[in-house]
Specification:
Length: 120
Amino acid sequence: MKVYLTDHDSPRISIGIKAPKNRLTIDCLIDTGFSSGIALGLSLLPKLQPQKIAEQEFELANGIRIFFNVYVVKIWENSKIRELPAIFTESEDHLVGMEFLLGHRLMIDLKSKSRKILLE
């Protein structure tokens, strides 16, 4: 996993996701307002072929409630496989949320001249 800040100070992370025949590297926005594990674009659903585990209602930032199918995806984290809940959306802007960050320390320094992000 590689964390970085964009030129506009947007926190991002590149993660490896296990697909049936290979490993995909996906670039995601770190979204602390998203409570679940990971949100991926629908175009990845046939490539990953994840197992559906539930249907869950989510409340979006605009107050609208929507149901999503919830799947399990496997990611590489420190040379180990970790399972995370995932939803697939119309957006191709992939997100990792708070459930992804559990067990980590996330530090974003936008005050110093050498702006930086750290995920431990």
